[in-house]
C-alpha cells in the first residue's frame, strides 16, 4: 500500500472535517454536505488501501 495514497485519504478527511465545521459555523448546509461527502470518500479510500494491504500480505 502506498503511503502517499494513505496520506491523500487522510488529507481528504481533514479537508472534509474542516468544510463541515465551516458549514456548521456559517449555517451553510451545502458546505456541511460536501464536508461529509469528503469524509465518506476518505473512508472508502482507506478501506481500499486496507484491502490492498491484506491482499499483498496474503500473497507474500
Number of helices: 2
Summing up helix and strand content along with how strands pair, one would put the structural category as mainly alpha
Described by strand count, sense and barrel closure, the largest sheet is: none
Are there runs of 5+ residues with pLDDT below 50, and where?
none
Oligomer: single chain
Strand content: under 5%
What is the string of helix and strand elements?
Answer: HH
Mean pLDDT equals 94
State the end-to-end distance.
Answer: 13 Å
Number of strands: 0
Estimated helix fraction: over 70%
Q: Using only CA atoms, what is the Rg?
A: 14 Å
Shape: elongated
Properties at a glance:
2 helices; 92% helix; 60 residues; single chain
Amino acid at each position: 500500500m502506498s503511503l502517499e495514497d494513505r496520506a491523500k485519504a487522510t488529507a481528504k478527511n481533514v479537508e472534509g472535517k474542516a468544510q463541515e465545521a465551516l458549514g456548521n459555523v456559517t449555517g451553510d448546509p451545502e458546505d456541511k454536505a460536501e464536508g461529509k461527502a469528503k469524509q465518506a470518500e476518505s473512508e472508502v479510500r482507506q478501506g481500499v488501501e486496507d484491502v490492498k494491504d491484506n491482499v499483498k500480505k496474503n500473497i507474500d
